[in-house]
Structure formats: C-alpha cells, structure tokens
Design goal:
Layout lengths: L8 E5 L11 E7 L2 E11 L5 E9 L43
Antiparallel strand pairs: 1-2, 2-3, 3-4
Length: 101
C-alpha cells in the first residue's frame, strides 16, 4: 500500500463537467490527519492572467478513489490539541533558579 505524506494531494481534470459552475479540476489532499476533497476553477483576472480558485471540504469518502483501505499517514498531524484535563504528569513546575536572568 502506498504511504500518504502529510500535505500532499492530487488534482485531476474534471472530464464529467457539463455545467459552467462545476469545477474544472477535482482531487483530494491529506492535511492534519484528514482527507479533504478539492475543487478548482481556472479563472482570469482583468489583465488576462490565469489563476485558480479553490474549495476544500472534509472528504465524503474516507479514502482516495481506487484504494481498498485507508493508507497510513507518513507522519503525525501537524497540530495536536491539548488534553482537556491535563494530569500533574503533564505540567512542568518552573522555579526562579530555572530563569537565566
């Protein structure tokens, strides 16, 4: 099974696009331990310069298309929320001797 790296994803040309409002590209990305569905539209600014507008939302399917099992992330999520009730083992006591000034 392929290893999925944090922050990596893919976009594919949306070949099923039949309405102008549908995205030009679709794909997914793995961020903070979760998969997100991506949609992208190719647009042009007033000077004619091309740019992409993006939309991301939590994935409806918990794995990339074609995968039989959810791949294991390559590294832990970037953000770990603090514990709701930290125990005394999680706290650090700082004394005046610990401060260098």
């Amino acid at each position: 099974m392929a290893e999925v790296k944090e922050g990596s994803g893919v976009l594919f040309l949306n070949r099923r696009k039949d309405q102008p409002r549908q995205p030009d590209f679709r794909g997914n990305i793995f961020l903070c331990g979760m998969y997100f569905d991506l949609a992208a539209w190719k647009n042009y600014d007033k000077t004619g310069e091309a740019y992409f507008s993006l939309n991301a939302r939590p994935a409806r399917v918990p794995r990339p298309i074609g995968e039989k099992e959810l791949p294991k992330p390559a590294e832990p999520p970037l953000y770990q929320p603090p514990a709701a009730n930290p125990s005394s083992a999680d706290t650090i006591e700082i004394t005046d001797d610990d401060i260098p000034f």
